[in-house]
Amino acid sequence: MTDNARESIAFVGDSLIEGGRWDEWFQESEVLSFGVPGATTDDLLKRLDEIVQADPDELVLLIGTEDLSRRGSVEHVVRNIETALVTLRKELPGTRLLLVSILPRGHEFAERIQEANRHLWQFVATVHGQYLDAWPALALEDGELNPMYTADRLHLNDQGYEAWLAELRPALARLRDQPPMSGVITLPRLHS
Length: 192
Known about the structure:
This is GDSL-type esterase/lipase family protein. It holds the Pfam family Lipase_GDSL_2. This protein is α/β, with parallel strands linked by helices. The chain has one domain: Rossmann fold (3-Layer(aba) Sandwich), CATH 3.40.50. Strands 2-1-3-4-5 form a five-stranded parallel sheet, sandwiched between helices. Helix 6 runs parallel beside helix 7. It is globular and about 45 Å long. About 4% of the residues have low confidence.
């Protein structure tokens, strides 16, 4: 945890995280940004040590859309995010985890994104994390990212970030009401 009085919050993910003005929006916290444009879930797994070393009080994770745009399977995305969550929970037992649903983008991705999100929503409680379903606030009925919130059907504009923040702030308030995980989760050993 941080030495100062302010809690630290790590924002982890791809360009959607990198594009946020987290320092401005969360001035009450020490903000740590781990957003990397083009990052996939494979990239996230390679960077977990760096994130663990930062030892944040809270962690917001949004990742997965880049995998799907590169024709990665839903199963691969879900498995990698689950692996990341288990690792983060094991290495950071005192950190409050918030997993954000994979955000909508072009409607042609909607079915795969929603399938991945269903799996992630079911899994996140097993690592004592919280889940924020940002889909209803950002998607049209056909699964397209609302054109008011984007110029390229993927990245958020200022209005898109405001719509997401309207969901994120209450989710973080709920997260802060929860006790951090007090024990380490161990996985059963698989026999080969």
